[in-house]
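Researcher: We plan to redesign the surface later, but first we want a full-length starting point. Tokens attached.
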């Protein structure tokens, strides 16, 4: 899965990984290097967990185009690139966990196309890497249960319309003090 020369490559290029794998859990293994575009060969992949490693580079578009991918957790790595690329187009996603990397940019309005999304986290490991504001279309994520934002430089307040997300039970916001009262207690 990872590029030749990385410590993970020799471990993951074995014949034990076939295209019928549905779950690939690689968390906390101290893997280094990038994710190979050959991941496209795992067409049945539904879950890709690779958090808490030392992965670098961009997420390959081949990973983001896997037709059955429903959970992507690459949090707590050293991945870079525009976050907008990651947040568009993966229709069946229920989990998109990106925090603790160095993605840049803004959340695109097309994030609202991820209508099955339940868990969403993004932001950097401490420095501000994402900017802008939550797009108005964000409230279309009606299945969202958990939202975590780290290292985010907002251009405006978190929209009060976020209260329309009736399933949202966890809102973690580490760099903004101006969170709207979205619950009627």
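Model: Full-length starting sequence:
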């Amino acid at each position: 899965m990872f590029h030749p020369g990385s410590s993970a490559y020799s471990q993951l290029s074995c014949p034990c990984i076939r295209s019928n794998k549905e779950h690939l859990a690689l968390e906390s293994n101290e893997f280094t290097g990038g994710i190979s575009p050959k991941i496209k060969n795992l067409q049945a992949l539904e879950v890709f967990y690779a958090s808490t490693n030392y992965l670098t580079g961009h997420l390959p578009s081949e990973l983001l185009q896997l037709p059955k991918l429903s959970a992507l957790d690459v949090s707590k790595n050293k991945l870079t690139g525009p976050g907008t690329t990651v947040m568009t187009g993966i229709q069946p996603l229920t989990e998109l966990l990106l925090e603790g990397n160095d993605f840049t940019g803004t959340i695109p309005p097309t994030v609202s196309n991820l209508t099955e999304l339940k868990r969403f986290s993004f932001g950097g490991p401490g420095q501000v890497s994402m900017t802008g504001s939550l797009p108005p279309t964000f409230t279309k994520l009606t299945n969202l249960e958990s939202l975590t934002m780290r290292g985010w430089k907002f251009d405006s307040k978190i929209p009060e319309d976020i209260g329309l997300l009736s399933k949202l039970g966890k809102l973690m916001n580490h760099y903004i003090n101006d969170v709207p009262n979205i619950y009627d207690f």
